[in-house]
Amino acid sequence: MQRYFIETAIENARISGEDARHIERVMRMKQGDNIVVVAQNTAYICTIEEFEGDEVVIEATGQTIPSPELPIQVTVACGLPKGDKLELITQKATELGMFALLPFEAERSIVKWDKKKGAKKQERLQKIAKEAAEQAHRTHIPTVFEPISFKQLVQQIDHFDAVFIADEEDAKAEKRTRFAEKLKNVYDMKSKSMLIIFGPEGGISRQESEALLQAGAQTMSLGPRILRAETAPLYALSAISYEFE
User: Fold this and answer.
1) What is the CB-side half-sphere exposure of residue 244 using CA atoms within 13 A?
2) The pLDDT value given to residue 51
3) Average pLDDT value for residue range 67-84
4) SS3 label, residue 229
5) Could you give the 3-state DSSP secondary structure of residue 172?
């Protein structure tokens, strides 16, 4: 069944806008068909009652679908990468269970966030997250935040139960800090939120790494191979899923 997100409670809910057009014109659904509607992080099986103008009137059947969300809220912070890599990270990380995406202006970020076009780009990224959440049958759409400065990123660390940095220097070391072992400690502590930080092309600088460590972050090794900026977050989310699910 098709899945749609709404921002209101399920009682007397209606689907409008682009989703309503998708139901009627793309999916060609009719009165009496069933769809899945996600309201307030719960997925309900609903029946289409009628099409009223540009809106679809629905009624909950009383049946819900179990949540597929990760048992820990994982926010991905990534240094602004080149090209359309941020779109790829948004889409695939959403499929893998990311809770939120927090881009930041890293020392080695080549691209700069265009403030004039920023709102439109952020809106596009949020739409990509919504579509990926629907495809993955999630009950939460990750929030894609506007990029922040590195200083602001450091200030965010205290808001999370566990914070890890993907540091390529750690990966090069003969004795690496295995991410799996550190995740076991997080699992044992029953942490509720986690921040995982990745650099852009070129990685995290030494100054940035030191500042993050002093603020309470830990390093993590994603194996002996050096991963691309768009690959590392997906590797980490997969590892978290394996450990927690």
Assistant:
1) 27
2) 94
3) 94
4) coil
5) helix
Sign of CA dihedral 6, 12, 18, 22: positive
Q: What's the Cα-to-Cα distance from 224 to each of 88, 104, 118, 169, 200, rounded to whole Å?
A: 24, 25, 36, 10, 18
| DSSP single-letter state for residue 200 | S
User: How far apart, in whole angstroms, are the C-alpha atoms of residue 207 and residue 51?
Assistant: 58
Count of other CB atoms within 10 angstroms of residue 172: 11
Amino acid residing at 141 = I
pLDDT digits (tens, 9 = 90+) for 189-232: 777 999 999 999 988 999 999 999 999 999 988 878 888 999 99
Please state the pTM of the whole predicted model.
0.92
Q: If you ran DSSP here, which 8-state letter would residue 137 be given?
A: T
Tokens of 52: 């009223």
The total of other beta-carbon atoms located within 10 Å of residue 23's CB is 21
Which tokens sit at 216?
């309470």
Residue 22 burial (10 A CB sphere; 0-12, 13-18, 19+)? middle
How far, CA to CA in Å, does 34 sit from each of 58, 66, 135? 9, 17, 17
pLDDT exceeds cutoff 80 at 170: no
Q: At what angle do helices 232-244 and 179-189 cross, to 10 degrees?
A: 50
Return the exposure string of 30-67: e unless at least 16 CB atoms fall within 10 Å of the residue's CB, then b: eeeeebbbbbeeebbebebeeeeeeebbbbbeeeeeee
* Digit-coded pLDDT (tens) for 104-126: 999 999 988 877 778 899 999 99
Q: Which residue has the higher pLDDT, 41 or 111?
A: 41
